[in-house]
Amino acid sequence: MPSPSFSLNIGLMEARLRKLLGTDTLLPYWLLLPTLVFIGVFFLMPLFNAIMLAFRADNGAFTLDYFKKMVADVRFIETLKYTFLLAVTIVPLQLITALAMALLVNTGFRGSRFFLYLFALPLGISDLAAGLIWLSIFTQHGFLNSILYSLGLIERPIYFISYQNIGLTFLAVVVAEHWRATAIVLVILVAGLQMISKDYLEAAEVLGARGWKKVWYVILPMLKPSLQSALIIRTIFALQTFAVVLALAGNIIPVLAGEAYFWHFLYRNSHIASAYAVFLMVISIGMTWFYLRFLRSRMEVIRG
Amino acid sequence: MRKYGILAAALFLSAFVGFAAQEITWMSTQFVPIAEAQFVRNELLKPFAAETGIDVKFIGAEYAEFVSRVEAEYEAGKGEIAVLCGLHGDFVSVVDALADLSGVAVGGTISDTLMKLGRMGGKQAYIPLMQATYLMVVNKKALEYLPEGADIWALTYDDLLQWAKNIYEATGMQKLGIPAGPKSLLHRFIHGYLYPSFTGYQVLAFDSGAAVKMWEYMKELWQYVNPAAPTWDAMDTPLLSEEVWIAWDHTARVKQAIVERPDDFIAIPTTSPDFDAAAKLIEYLTTPEAQVKILQGVGFFPVVAEAAGAVPTGALQILAKGVTAQAGSPDAIVSFIPGGISDEYKKIYKDTFFKFVIRGEPVDVKFLRAQATRLRELYLEADAPYPAPDGG
Predict the structure, then answer these.
(1) CA distance B291 to B274
(2) Is ipTM strictly over 0.90?
(3) Do B28 and B72 fall into the same domain?
(4) What is the pTM of this model?
(5) Contact B243 A163 (CB under 8 A)
(6) Domains of chain A, CATH where assigned
């Protein structure tokens, strides 16, 4: 229930706005205008420009050369491989962890709020900073090696970040990325959990569902829309992962977003950089379509 | 106003001569990082303004912006920028727009070899301001493993390999450092040092038999390079943390290590220096005092003979000694940074490196040939001369 004073204020503001902007029919459009302008100027226009850059040569002619060059690049296959490998490893891992954390927080035990804030903490840290924090842990003379050494577990530092041991380097990136970006999934899932009406859970209990059964047959199906949003957001972000990988793995693990950056800033060819960006966008759209198609929330699941 | 005659001569367009304000603009592709630009504005230009009454507005610019602005002002016949500062390669593409600086006074003695670099298009297109070079920095702990008979001041590539190997065999650690991160200057090591040393050329012998030998050498050497090297953009941090004992990098990128721990390091030469000549005529900047100031502030080296002997405080003397030994070495090969071509050339050198050395694939002449073709194409597309030692 919204408090009376709150709705009164909104009402007053609305009346004033109506007076200011004219008829009722126009009002919604006026209110949408700033958002539309913002999206148009800062999102659609650059998007359009990037697409043009990827397909048009300097003389204005349409060309697929930049895409051909992208695909023929010696690093392309490797880059594609690592980008997908990272997404495929990180996203499910994050989903499971975030779900566990969300269920824990949602039980409402004493101090659960504290844990919610604690879990959400990495949200406030920029990705590059997060990468550097983990670098100071994994580097040859970093915290992890120091601890292992002082415990007498190793004789000399382990090269956690090494082109000779890509598996270990990959693991370091996964750990860092998992720490950094799970919170966003958690926040979405906690919000979703709180929207599930207590009635369903009580009904389930009356019918004898306990513990895991309740989670599996009631909570998870009801949480599907939130899971879907979380999956879409995380997958797109995972495909774009860049700063953490750059800070931790440099040239050892190349990713698509990184190539776009290097082509633009190091090799100064914005056409090929845009080709990478457009390619990433197409993959992201494809993944989003996939999730929307195959993770549709079906109410009948709950009935059954 | 007293010094204005000198400044006017530094302008790259005659149209500027009538421009009589007390403020001039200096555009530069160097000293762009915030800390360096701050140093230029506060430490370097403030005393100049106090002395002459001329305020200099310093603007840092990327190469693309630099060229397009110079061209635009040249075509318009009038402009705002009075003085330019850039790498040798930055000027190659805008030679027409540069004023002839012969006869302009400099604040110290600049050697003829260096001055000659600035003679392009039948004029003195620029005056060398500073030189940047690359060198090896060595932690003193590495000295006891130096191979027998090796002279640290005239180290050969074979000595280096043996040295790194000795350390590895004794300590079990890979203590050699060559920056190979995404923003590292690895391409300079390959096209400015390895290629000229092994093949005599940067471009022309890219796929030669000597080049194959060179890549084989690199693969062998890389066994003793710290495996985290592909994540490093600069060697100062790994040197300070002792993740490496021997490191190659740009002087400005190792300066911090030497400044922080001057007693631990010495600098030694490799075989061929790479000059980044910057053009700036203002007499003030070529005075020994200003040159030393720039060295202290940003780690670029003086070109003025008087300043070479006058490097004042302790730590930087170590760097200076290494640079002097390198440039003075009798078999030194001078290589230039390619200019006027697409920056894609960096990728060609780096990609070849990653394929053979990091990914450990066998040295493949066919691949080398394809890369060489692409490299030459870049020069042809831009109609740019091959940099020294290749010609041009």
Answers:
(1) 19
(2) no
(3) yes
(4) 0.76
(5) no
(6) 1-55 (no CATH), 70-303 (1.10.3720.10)
